[in-house]
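Researcher: I'm preparing a figure for a lab meeting and need a structural model of a single chain. I don't have an experimental structure, so a prediction will have to do for now. The sequence is pasted below. Please return the structure as tokens so I can convert it later.
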Amino acid sequence: MTTLHPEPGDWSNYLQRFIEGKMVFGSWFDHVNGWWEKKQTYSNIHYMFYEDLIEDTGREIDKLCCFLGLSPSAEEKEIIIGKVLFDVMKNDNMVNRSTVKELDFTKSSFMRKGKVGDWKNHFTVAQDEKFDENYKQKMKNSTLQFRTEV
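Model: Understood. Here is the structure written out token by token.
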């Protein structure tokens, strides 16, 4: 949907390029591993995972506030929780990027469904197996663990 990037092509070809790291900004694996490695020695990086937010938003807000040195009241925390709901954010022009001219919203929305595990509706069994094999190889030296279910 971005007019700054080349057309992604069909899903199968895009996935192959993603696995090979042939993306506009390089390898996702290198990017994620690099920042995870940096986090181990640099205390000013906080990782949040979408699946954890879905599972327990309040807990993750508490972790973020602790990281930032903040102590919101119970009322402030409830306001925050209400504002970070996926559907609320999807309708917020400051979040959904609807004002960014370089995005073509006739192709898709910036924010998709917000459903954990939706990848299963896009990957074939063969693609899933290929991705898993590649993921295990490229992430073998990392302690970073992702969840795909809640």
